[in-house]
Specification:
about 260 residues, alpha+beta, five-stranded mixed sheet
Length: about 260
């Protein structure tokens, strides 16, 4: 009987040991499960129509291209893009960048304007996904061009155009329901400390389609507009002799994009 009892105790001990090992294995799985794997960082904005807001800093031309133009934007992702503006800086801290515009031809990309010196944010470019409201940085990424604006009637631009009035503002308030929108102050509140549109720098310009989802705090009011001689709060600027020909050249029928970042 004593032998049977000892054997029973031994079997019970083995069972307990097995349970303990299984518990340790389960704990290991929980500690390194799928939730701990790679994924999108919280708060990372997405560029409308692209997988991420990260630019391709120095794209290579298609095999058919014979010139020094930028890369085709990817046949599957953006087959219709036939005008491209590139704004590149030497480093994230630089407040100067190089702007070049290209058109797609049957032989590849051909440069149309530039290289020109553009001014960007007073704190340079933000790394992809790191732009925040009030940080003085220009967002990196590839963006659409929703519409143009200016102080007077449309001077012949082919894009949808909005004439600026004294009551027009851009809502920069992350707590506002109209964050990152053009607001007619006669009919709606543009939030706390809004951006007035009726200023000389905005006599001619275009909206860069950054944060079109209007995610609070990721940044607002990103434009390409007239240079006022200093770095910006996040926009891109050119002198009028360069900006106006560029704006007249752009056509919504050619699905233009603007790509910005550090080369």
């Amino acid at each position: 009987m004593a032998g049977l009892a000892l054997a029973g105790l031994a079997m019970a001990g083995l069972a307990l040991a097995g349970l303990a090992m299984a518990g340790l294995a389960m704990a290991g799985l929980l500690a390194t499960g799928c939730a701990a794997g790679p994924g999108a960082a919280p708060g990372r904005p997405r560029d409308p129509g692209t997988a991420r807001a990260a630019p391709a800093p120095s794209p290579a031309p298609r095999p058919a291209s014979t010139g020094p133009g930028p890369a085709a934007e990817g046949h599957a992702a953006r087959p219709a893009v036939r005008q491209l503006i590139r704004v590149t800086a030497a480093s994230y801290g630089s407040t100067d960048a190089v702007l070049t515009a290209y058109r797609r031809t049957s032989h590849g990309w051909q440069r149309v304007f530039g290289p020109w010196t553009a001014r960007i944010g007073r704190n340079g470019f933000a790394p992809p996904g790191r732009k925040r409201e009030g940080d003085g940085r220009t967002p990196s990424g590839s963006f659409s061009i929703p519409f143009f604006f200016g102080a007077g009637p449309n001077p012949g631009f082919r894009f949808r155009y909005r004439q600026i009035r004294s009551y027009d503002y851009w809502d920069d308030d992350p707590a506002s329901p109209r964050y990152n929108e053009w607001v007619d102050g006669r009919h709606a509140s543009p939030g706390a400390n809004p951006e007035p549109m009726a200023v000389a720098a905005y006599d001619d310009g275009l909206v860069i389609g950054y944060n079109t989802a209007r995610t609070p705090g990721l940044g607002s009011a990103i434009f390409l507009h007239l240079n006022i001689g200093i770095a910006t709060a996040g926009c891109v600027t050119l002198p009028p002799g360069e900006l106006l020909p560029l704006l007249h050249w752009l056509s919504p029928d050619r699905s233009p994009r603007i790509r910005m970042g550090v080369r």
